[in-house]
Amino acid sequence: MLKVEQQQPVEFSSALKEKFDEIISRYPKGKHKSALLPMLHEVQAELGWLSPDAMDKVAAYLDIQNIEVYEVASFYSMYFLKPQGKYVLEVCRTGPCCLVGAEKLMNHIEQNLGVKEGEVTPDGLFSWRGVECLAACGYGPVLQIGPEYTFYENLNEQKVDELIQDLRKK
Amino acid sequence: MARKLLLEHINVPGINTFDVYRQKGGYRAVEKALKTLTPDEVVEEVKKSGLRGRGGAGFPTGMKWSFLAKPEGVARYLVCNADESEPGTFKDRYLMTHIPHALIEGMIVSSFALGANTSYIYVRGEMMPQIRILEKAIAEAKHAGFLGKNILGTGYDLELYVQPGGGAYICGEETALLESLEGKRGNPRIKPPFPAIAGLYGCPTVVNNVESIAATVPIINDGGDEYAKIGIGRSTGTKLISASGNLVRPGVYEIDLGLPVEEFIYSDEYCGGIANGKRLKATVAGGSSVPILPANLTLKLANGEPRLMSYESLSEGGFATGSMMGSGGFIAFDEDQCIVRNTWNFARFYHHESCGQCSPCREGTGWMEKVLHRIEYGHGKMSDIDLLVDVSKKIEGNTICPLGDAAAWPVASAIRHFRDEFEWHVKEPIKCLDTNYGLANYAEPIAKAEVTTGN
Ligand SMILES: Cc1cc2nc3c(=O)[nH]c(=O)nc-3n(C[C@H](O)[C@H](O)[C@H](O)COP(=O)(O)O)c2cc1C
Ligand code: SF4
Ligand code: FES
């Protein structure tokens, strides 16, 4: 269910609006609702998550009902309906990756970060979660980090520790 | 050494750029199709090639194209299915990452054949790096005059766009994909009408997998008859196989259809055998949705003949002793893997990914996940095993889209072939928590025992 988190007014930058218009131009006249998923990705890349106000403004931009945006945002797994850590480590937890150690890796990440799946570290830097097959099963375990979905393959505990350390220093 | 049609130049430095791809003979198929063939002649070549859809169902591509309705004055669309989320499948991502122009070239040829002037490549949203790669490739092709208005002076116009998904396995199902592309939740549509009649925006639409579309390039270059010479029987051409699990060399391989499964697993040209010197316990031959087979039935048919990597041979024996080609996601399990745990993992996946429209799928997948979880964690009852079979039967065939079947088959087949392992979990509720049942029906030990450690 869509849980309404804190409301903060959102203002889309003109660069973002330009991007919106370019996206809308990809579809035939009158079919601009097709722009919804790509637009939500752009908004999330800029704001880190989809606040209700951000979603309402997207609805207004596309001239569709707010509910049409909520139902899409709540259906797809990539959209965050509450604030996340700056870096969200998304580890594949599906069968083939588990054959090569994904579950152990997730336990290790939980220990390293000291937070449970879906929670944010106190410094606001990290959260993590298991996600489903990322189409890289031959190179598992794998994880990705948004908003550009940078990809890390053939992971082990040491490599993950190094990755987390590098991100901390950034 | 098998012929490589799709991956021939995979190791050429810079093959991801237009210039290098072109130097290696790229975009010849576009020139040939647009300048020397009519759209119907392109469709005819694809029909002759015998190409079958590489997305999972294996439906003949040329035939699918010939079903496309062509009402006067109505736009037609080609939509490429690059949602690749079937567990065990990673060939499309590989192709798009390394040879993006193979897909772009195939999209131009295929769009021309279908009379589409706007086409979309629907890529799962998580593949943001691949989306960027494709966008760059499209810009390069457009700059070189292979996309846009009046391509190569032939009067044919085509705009090509990349559409990101939002993270949902169900959007690989073609009507859910179209809903998603229209900016909605990915709920599969009730068919008929089929997309060929009413697809994207209600217009006639063809949805094809990345690999199917890329395969039209060698088909047009060499002719459909040449393509049809590769392979075996009705399994023509080459196929990308994604090999994962406990293998010495997992990865993407292009094989001639008809290759013996045993050669694929154990030869050094392909997977190089089972990793860490272990023995093979089971395989899932075509992505998580297809039935699991114990090692002996993976390598040999029930009558003892070798099993081949082809649509027919992999499904030989029906569900009793066979599996399916599916998307070519080949998952190998070694002797240390627990079939109950893997079945639970897959059931969890399908429960998570059910769109929730049909109650047998929505409720049944959740129920199977719960029961499997309790067997795996030592709280199961003997009757749970038959309960699982019963639930799987009640899902199968009773849903709007095939995700229901895809969820039911792995559970039903695991119990069919590994019932003793499920029973052992019930009988040994403590032991099963940290011990492994081990091998159930393994193959005769394979001659090649020593295993190279890959790299
Ligand atoms: C639940 C489900 C998931 C699917 N996922 C994919 C997918 O990720 N990629 C794909 O090409 N086809 C997928 N398919 C098959 C498509 O519905 C469709 O048959 C295919 O894209 C047609 O292309 P082809 O004829 O070139 O194989 C899926 C089907 C179902 C039922
Ligand atoms: S079978 Fe499952 S995924 Fe498919 S439409 Fe029904 S509920 Fe949705
Ligand atoms: S199972 Fe992890 S990427 Fe496919």
TrEMBL record, chain A:
It comes from the Bacteria. Pfam families: 2Fe-2S_thioredx. The keyword Iron-sulfur applies. Its cofactor is [2Fe-2S] cluster. Keywords: 2Fe-2S, Iron, Iron-sulfur, Metal-binding. Belongs to the complex I 24 kDa subunit family. NCBIfam families: nuoE_fam. This is NAD(P)H-dependent oxidoreductase subunit E. It comes from Pedobacter panaciterrae.
From TrEMBL, chain B:
GO terms for molecular function: NADH dehydrogenase (quinone) (non-electrogenic) activity. The keyword NAD applies. Keywords: 4Fe-4S, Flavoprotein, FMN, Iron, Iron-sulfur, Metal-binding, NAD, Oxidoreductase, Quinone, Translocase. Residues 340-385 form the NADH-ubiquinone oxidoreductase 51kDa subunit iron-sulphur binding domain. Its EC number is 7.1.1.-. Its cofactor is FMN; [4Fe-4S] cluster. Coiled coil: none annotated. It catalyses: a quinone + NADH + 5 H(+)(in) = a quinol + NAD(+) + 4 H(+)(out). It holds the Pfam family NADH_4Fe-4S. Belongs to the complex I 51 kDa subunit family. NDH-1 shuttles electrons from NADH, via FMN and iron-sulfur (Fe-S) centers, to quinones in the respiratory chain. This is NADH-quinone oxidoreductase subunit F. It comes from Pedobacter panaciterrae.
